[in-house]
Amino acid sequence: MIIDSKHLAAITASLLLTGCAQLGLGQPEDSGAPLPPRGQSAAGLAAAALPAATAADVAAIAADPVLTSAPKPPPAAKTQEALDTTTTAQRQQASAPASPSAVEKSLGTTVVSLGSPAEPGFWLKTPLVKTETKGRVTNKANGKSSAVTLIPIDGPAGGGSRMSLPAMRLIEASLTELTEVEVTLGG
Questions:
Q1: Residue ranges under compositional bias (Low complexity) (predicted)?
Q2: How far is CA 121 from CA 54, 61, 107, 126, in A?
């Protein structure tokens, strides 16, 4: 089957519009205020009310080495369970709610994909930070969250991020699809 440029353009436009609709872009507005994202949870609404973090805020919070101290998976590991070498204690620590004394400030929202499953621990590689620090990610679709080590990567602040297998599993994010998460400093 040969597709000419006219049909290719139509297919591309259809795919783009479908993607925008799934992200809630271009949706009608009733009151002039933007519609909340689909699946917005109470946790997501609360995170949106947090003050924005500054570079000084990020620099003031040290990363938690416990969250990234799991051993590397064995070379023959093929399943999620074999690749996730975090301990029960690490999973409990990562899933525990932020302490009331934790400094929680919003770093923003990012779309995550699965990072290297061979890199152990709870981490998020993101352009939202410029120095390694402690943070938390919340799955906007279901409100599940995980403490993570935030690791800087190059890219625009609105660019995508990569998350560790254990963190993706903990927040019940799809390992094969993109997931939107709220990223906060601290907790």
A1: 85-102
A2: 26, 19, 21, 15
The pTM for the full model equals 0.64
Mode of pairing for the β-strands spanning 145-152 and 123-126: parallel
At 39-88, the pLDDT tens digits run 444 444 444 566 666 666 665 566 666 677 787 888 888 899 989 988 88
Looking at residue 62, its amino acid is A
Burial code of 98-124, b = ≥16 C-beta within 10 A, e = fewer? eeeeeebbbbbbbebbbbebebbbbbb
Q: Does residue 135 sit in helix, strand or coil? A: strand
Q: Residue 186 contacts by C-beta under 8 Å, 6 or more apart in sequence?
A: 61, 98, 102, 103, 104, 105, 134, 135, 136
CATH code matching the domain that covers 37-185, chosen among 3.10.20.600, 3.40.190.150, 3.30.360.10, 2.40.40.10: 2.40.40.10
pLDDT, tens only, 128-178: 999 999 999 999 999 999 999 999 999 987 789 999 999 999 999 999 999
Q: Which amino acid is at 133?
A: T
User: Residue 144, CB half-sphere, CA atoms under 13 Å: how many?
Assistant: 14
Give 31's pLDDT tier (boundaries 50, 70, 90).
very low
Alpha carbons within 13 angstroms on the beta-carbon side of residue 99 total 5
